[in-house]
Fold this protein.
Amino acid sequence: MVEPLHHQAKQPVSAALAGPYGHPFHPLLVTVPIGAWVGSLVFDVASHLVHDPDFLARGAMWLIALGVIGALAAALVGFLDLFAIPPGTRAFRVALLHMALNLLVTVAYAANFWWRQAGEGPSGSVGAGMFALNAVSLAVLGLSGYLGGKLAYHYGVRVAHETTQAEGYVPAHRPTGRRHTD
């Protein structure tokens, strides 16, 4: 019997690198760039609200750098998840768009870091161009995150099979044999 194509997308290409069945590493790793880049936008906004904004501008710059490093780590594991999806499927097309948007966002943030650290580095409130690039990049990241959610929650990529998930909804047996009422 041939397994359905969607079953292939649930198994890791390499469990050691991508995470074991039902526990992929990619969703865990993406929290680093998302958190760092959201934090950088918060720091950008805050740099316009305080008397001495230099520390916030520097903090935003380093959060952007941290996000780029985290995004590269998440991308490496994400590529392994992509290879588990059968080519020519809707899930594969969504995954390619998700990957392309994430790579675009990572390049945009790398450019934003380079722009910010050019010369003597950041001083004063964050400039309008840098702020706009940060905000637009984060909006595109949100769209890509939506697609990533569609891959996991709609298409079930790297998510345990429904029969495995059903195990969590079987009533637990009490070892004492006594009936318990709440």
Notes: The chain is about 65% helix and 0% strand. Helices lie at 5-8, 15-18, 26-29, 31-46, 54-84, 90-117, 128-154, 162-166.
